[in-house]
């Protein structure tokens, strides 16, 4: 289903780098604690979460 939606919207992707760009990483790291600290009691470490997302996307795209 994701492939069909992406094709319809003209998105192409083949790797994790298509989702997690250097620009995204920079923006996320700057706003991680500021944006999320009020939404959860325990905030996971940014690097840990990004690593887990990268792993999940890699498996999903395989």
Please describe what this structure looks like.
- It is a single chain.
- This protein has 62 residues and is mainly alpha-helical.
- It has one domain.
- Helices cover 63% and strands 0% of the residues.
- It has 3 helices and no strands.
- It is elongated.
- The two termini are 15 Å apart.
Largest sheet: none
Number of helices: 3
List the domain count as a whole number. Answer: 1
Low-confidence stretches: none
Q: Span from first to last CA?
A: 15 Å
Q: Over all CA atoms, what is the radius of gyration?
A: 14 Å
Total E-strand runs: 0
Helix content: 55-70%
Give a concise summary.
This protein has 62 residues and is mostly helical. Helix content is 63%, strand content 0%. It has one domain (14-61).
């Amino acid at each position: 289903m994701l492939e069909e939606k992406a094709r319809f919207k003209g998105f192409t992707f083949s790797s994790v780098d298509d989702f997690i760009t250097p620009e995204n990483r920079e923006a996320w790291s700057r706003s991680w604690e500021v944006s999320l600290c009020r939404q959860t009691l325990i905030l996971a470490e940014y690097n840990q979460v990004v690593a887990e997302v990268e792993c999940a996307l890699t498996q999903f795209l395989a």
